[in-house]
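Hey, resending since the last one bounced:
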Amino acid sequence: MAQAPVHPQGGSTTPETAQSILQQILNLEQIDTNLFRGVSPARPRWGRIYGGQTVSQSLVAAGKTVPPEFLVHSLHSYFLYPGDDNIPIL
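The structure tokens again:
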């Protein structure tokens, strides 16, 4: 199962820490054919999921369902309700 990234408490985030958090967020767990689970950052909790995170995880999951020669040429999304950052993203 994918581990939720740990955000450092206090201080500024270094580029290396930010990159590590991003890699953890985009490291999706495959739970079935064409079904993936993503996580939200462990800290800080905002009570909702940022739309860019959802889109990024969706794009990574989609890329894992097709042969590597197929590339994304466009992406469109709409957010009707906020996501809950306590629930894994499927």
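The first strand starts at residue 29 and ends at 32.

Sorry for the duplicate.
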